[in-house]
What we know:
alpha+beta, 143 residues, STM4215-like, 6-stranded mixed sheet, elongated
Amino acid sequence: xxxxxxxxxxxxxxxxxxDGTGTFQTNIFSNAFVMHKFWDECNDFPSIYxxxxxxxxxxxxxxxxxxxxTISLKCYVKGETPVQDLENLLEDIEKVLDTNxxxxxxxxxETTEILITSIVTDEGLLVPYGVGEVTLNVRYQVP
Length: 143
């Protein structure tokens, strides 16, 4: 399995821990998937869809390579207060990412850092739905 797929799958496993207990405000009922779906195709709310995007390389001396992978998290909620529900979900996602900046994938590989580069929402235009997108930049060592 490629590093792109493995990192996305490992991220899904971590996001599935958002269950409304402890410091989490939202329960996603394990609705986190590596696939692309638009908000109007979604039937289960809240949901998070992970989409690996572009990848770049940085070549260093001694045949060392960094990989930089862009990942989009598409976040969908539905309810009477979708703007607040989406904000709560985005905060929960940020908590998961902050505690998993070094993410183990495959058997013995790990990312070096995971950074949020942008967060965008529909700003309440799709009530009773809420749509958000979190863009990540993941750095890892390329074998």
